[in-house]
Amino acid sequence: MLSAEEKAAIERREWPVSPFAIDTMFLPVLVGLEQNGCAFDPTGLDVLDQDLTDQMEAAEFGVRAIAGWDVIMVDDIVDTGLTLHTVRKLLLDRHPRSLKVCTLLDKVARHKVDLDIDYCGFEIPDHFVVGYGLDIDEKGRNLPYIASVDLDKYHQLYG
Q1: Is the pTM higher than 0.70?
Q2: What domains are defined for the chain?
Q3: Whether 152 is catalytic
Q4: How confident is the model over 109-140, as pLDDT tens digits?
């Protein structure tokens, strides 16, 4: 559960993330790892709209060559980290100049692989969360905040 201070920070769009410099000669390629577009859409951040859910092979990913580019992988939430880890390896095989990882939420307790996350909005406990693009069975995605779901109560209500 997010604290009142964290909820207020989200509403004010004040992320506890240090700003970073982007080389103006090389605008970064932003790669979203979200099935329905980028989780950061509500903030106005534009990303490469690439659905990776069914396209995990390097040959299928990306029409765009990223060799020599600065790349930022953007994900809404990191759970086990397996997808992020796999896609990161695929992208590194394409020889970007740099590769950074950005996520709004990180469930560190659920990681199954070692990850280096460069920009993390919030570390959260192991709760199922909805809102701000995250959903459960297509419900809760449009909430303008992040909330945890009591899965037992949810399954009692919706089966």
Answers
A1: no
A2: 4-13+22-158 (3.40.50.2020)
A3: no
A4: 999 999 999 999 999 999 999 998 899 999 99
